[in-house]
Amino acid sequence: MVKCPDCGSENVYIDKKGYGLGKAAVGMVVAGPVGLLGGFLGSKKLKAQCLDCKWKWKI
Ligand SMILES: [Zn+2]
Question: Ligand 1 centroid to 21 CA: how many Å?
């Protein structure tokens, strides 16, 4: 179970979709094909947000 690093709550939302593609698209704009590759390499990370204190972080 994921806990909020800020308040310790287990009431955490995890975004399992979209992060890799979105990051790759941004990388493509900023750094071209190399940025696109970097975006895909980073696609295993997930976004998490605490529903109690709204803290956001990557897991
Ligand atoms: Zn929290």
Answer: 27
Residue 35 exposure: Cα atoms within 13 Å on the Cβ side:
11
Q: Give the three-class secondary structure for 26.
A: helix
Report the separation in Å between the CA atom of 1 and the middle of ligand 1, taken as the mean of its atom positions.
14
Q: Summarize pLDDT for 8-46 with one digit per residue, the tens.
A: 999 999 987 654 556 656 556 667 766 556 555 555 678
This prediction has a pTM of 0.54
**Residues whose CB is under 5 A from ligand 1 (ion)?**
4, 6-7, 9, 50, 52-53, 55
